Amino acid sequence: MSAHSPERRGSRLDVSKLSLRYGMVQVLHQVSLPSILPGTVVALLGPNAAGKSSLLRGIAGLSSTTGEVCLDGVPVGQAGFAERARKIAYVPQTLPAASRLCVFESVLSAAMAGAGPDGRELRVARAAEQVEATLHQLELMPLADRMLAQLSGGQRQRVGLAQALVRKPRVMLLDEPTSALDLYYQLRSLEQVVAETKRSGLISMIALHDINLALRYADTVVVLSNGCVRGVGCPRQVLSPALFAEVYGVSGRVVEFDGVPQAVITGVRAIRD
Amino acid sequence: MSPYRTGYQARFRRGVLIVGALMLGVLVAVSVDVTTGPSGMSVARLWHILLHPETVSPAEAVIVWNVRLPYALMAILVGAALALSGCEMQTTLMNPLASPFTLGVSAAASFGAALAIVLGLGLPGLAQEYMVATNAFVFALASSCLLWLLASWRGLGVESLVLFGIALVFAFNALVALLQFVASQDTLQQLVFWTLGSLGRASWSKLAVLATLLLASLPFAMRRSWSLTALTLGEDRARSFGIDVGHLRLSSLVRVSLLAGVSVSFVGVIGFVGLVAPHIARLMIGEDHRFLLPVSALTGAFILSLASIASKVLISGVLIPVGIVTALVGIPFFVAIVFRVREGAA
């Protein structure tokens, strides 16, 4: 089965001088990131309204931005919206709607949507195989025939992840993919994302609130605040006591506990503006 | 083969089965519809008249070919057109209460027809007999464009659209009432009869136009069936799959205004089929639009065919305008849907 054999499809992602405004409000100020290489898990951190979602939407092309997003040096805007969405899968923070589709159909529609009409029946059969492989991979097979309307929020969030993975993107942009999940699936889902990222040579960029999840799974963290990059690099180095104070307004530092890096927050420092 | 694929294939087979069953149902309903009327006729006699037209009396041939058959076929074509329009509107506007009737397309068409009937206003260079239908169509198209402009207007959610549609219904109804107020006795009667919605205006040329339109737009709708299915997962998510939601809405509203506009201009206002049929189809088949679109159309055809039969037999000897029958039958359905939606939201 195709999804179980290693299939490298990685590309280098470059983001330079990305700016975005909603009306009068500038939400991203010329955000540039160092080149992100295939197989990298990037955690996007920052307080509320820092621009995490906006950055992801900007890279996905869902919000109109100035600046450039390139895959392997080629601007992604050139190929058109549908082609860009084939390469860059964005998973919105909102859960898939509780519709009268079964899990299998909903993931199949994600695989088929935005594709050309040619050779349709053949492609449906092939897409159905990929759907099955993806549901296996994410341990969602027991839910395959259940209606989305019958699932819990957490289950729907995991189906949302399957809808992105089945499209076999080169870049996955996940906006708070663990917000509706219990402790077990927070870890399990991110483990699955990391495993797929390494196996297929993807780039995963994950907006997170939980710093411990970032410390545990990210190769690189990007810290945003007020639409500007406040730190990029190795999680343990970037997440310094100074950064906790400046960006989050709390006293904190990273310690090692049983070999796992943990953020320890000791108190609120000041009211953020 | 794993049980999950089998589950999906079972749903697929079920879909094919439902489409087949509905086709059979429509065929039976049409046969009954044609054989129902002031002068009785058996189904066997009907087939005889259809297959051996040279052996029957001219009177019988005229009844079947010029009266009963156009009437019965108009019922299924209009039913299919309105239901397909309603289905696409509900999906693209993401609202279970959207339909050509509830969002003002039919009311706009009535106003256009009223302008032609009462004031004789219409596009220049058209014969009087086409003016009513053309006006109805132009106004239906214009109201859909207005809906689309609002749907694509940033910041206005699609939820507000139903409210706007209701406002359109009231506005156009008020305008029609105003025209009724100033109309002469003669034109008033004509206008009231037009707005009631009747299949009696069927003719072979109208059937040909509507059938061509339906056959031409269904493939276009089917081509977008995966995108429509994905849109039921939410607009943001559909866009993340690379679907140009604005374009999808525009292309479907073009189809809707053509189908609904032409239907209404031919037979007048026939409510509730466009709202109720897609919901019955959704209950039977779910949201997979490869099946939902044809099943909606067939369900609409079946319902309006039944309504057509009912319009002949409810009061014997009186042909009730079919628009009245669908509205009366539609109301309990409508209430049931509202309750279902409320339960779904809770």
UniProtKB/TrEMBL annotation, chain A:
InterPro entries: AAA+_ATPase, ABC_transporter-like_ATP-bd, ABC_transporter-like_CS, P-loop_NTPase. Keywords: ATP-binding, Nucleotide-binding. Residues 13-251 form the ABC transporter domain. It comes from the Bacteria. SUPFAM superfamilies: P-loop containing nucleoside triphosphate hydrolases. GO terms for molecular function: ATP binding; ATP hydrolysis activity. The keyword Membrane does not apply. Pfam families: ABC_tran (PF00005). It comes from Marinobacter oulmenensis. This is Iron complex transport system ATP-binding protein.
From TrEMBL, chain B:
Belongs to the binding-protein-dependent transport system permease family. FecCD subfamily. It is found in: Cell membrane. It is a multi-pass membrane protein. SUPFAM superfamilies: ABC transporter involved in vitamin B12 uptake, BtuC. One of its GO terms (biological process) is siderophore-iron import into cell. One of its GO terms (cellular component) is plasma membrane. Coiled coil: none annotated. This is Iron complex transport system permease protein. One of its GO terms (molecular function) is transmembrane transporter activity. Keywords: Cell membrane, Membrane, Transmembrane, Transmembrane helix, Transport. The chain crosses the membrane at residues 12-32, 69-89, 101-124, 130-149, 161-183, 203-222, 258-285, 291-311, 318-339.
